[in-house]
Amino acid sequence: MPTPMLYWINGRLRPEQEAVLPVTDHGLLYGDGIFEGIRFYHRHPFRLAAHLQRLADSAAAIQLTLPCSQARLVEAINEIIDAFPEENGYLRLMLTRGSGPLGLDPAACRQPNTILIASQLEMASPEQRRKGIKLVVATVRRQSADGLDPRIKSLNYLNAILARMEASRAGAQEAVLLNPQGRVAEGSAENLFIVRDGRLSTPRPIDGALAGVTRSVVLELAEALNIPAREAPLTPYDLYTADECFLSGTGAELIPVREVDGRPLRHCPGAIFSMLSHAFQQQIKQETQPKESI
Ligand code: PMP
Fold first, then answer.
1. 212 Cβ inside 6 Å of ligand 1
2. Per-residue pLDDT at 291 exceeds 80
3. What pLDDT is stored for residue 238 in this prediction?
4. What phi and psi, each to the nearest 5 degrees, are found at residue 15?
5. 166 alpha-carbon distance from chain centroid
6. Which CATH superfamily is domain 126-285 in?
7. Is the CB of 150 under 6 A from ligand 1?
8. 21, 28 Cβ separation under 8 angstroms
9. Where do the domains of the chain lie?
10. To test ligand 1's pocket by mutation, which of 38, 250, 280, 284 has the most ligand atoms within 8 angstroms of CB?
11. Which of 11, 139, 177, 251 shows a CA-CA span of 20 to 30 A to 207?
């Protein structure tokens, strides 16, 4: 039996039947809102400060005033983690514009809604983590950074969803989205890295990548391990000819890729992926495990 999800809405934990919002919430009507996905390990949220910073930045970018202080959000996060039956899990933190009349104008929306959901999450099977997953390059494109800055983690994931549906139809586990210029942006819910000749490359936010928290951990670890790394414009050709490729994300953690559009990659899991993946797990332990048990 999967562990039931827990819900915290606007100030308190609620049973599932009370975890409801009005249908006039602009988050539902227009996707007007933002969110974060946060993992906790040993009841400690991983990289919480970075997630809260990104939430504050997304809020500033869409002119949404946070309905409570960061300290209150941290309290709520700790409350739901303490109430969750498992030590490890995933939190979805959402801020919606709130309830208002029909029409796009948010000015008449009364008060943003703050929602936290605690859940278990298994984004990939142990076999997929060991052997890697298949990617396809989706025909659906990530919207241009001029249209919607990809650093805003908005509630609207429709193009990512359409891309993921393409992947499923093609028998692959994940899709890569290109930006309107044909540069690689990211996976439907993960950042993407390739390795070529010992060097790590990942697309830039300006090319359509979310500034992923896990992505920044990977870049930190690469520096510590003396693995050359850079942000770079990439095309599907770079994926097809890469030595290694992998995805990073809060839900995904690090997942190796074994095939892109039917082309097997040279190494999966590759040596650099394996080093980074090991270092990533160590980092999680270091930051979240009670000190006496390390
Ligand atoms: N890109 C997109 C579109 C995502 O939804 C996510 C998951 N939040 C990521 C990248 C990975 O970001 P993070 O490492 O912060 O979870």
1. yes
2. no
3. 98
4. -65, 160
5. 19
6. D-amino Acid Aminotransferase, subunit A, domain 2 (3.20.10.10)
7. no
8. yes
9. 6-119, 126-285
10. 250
11. 251
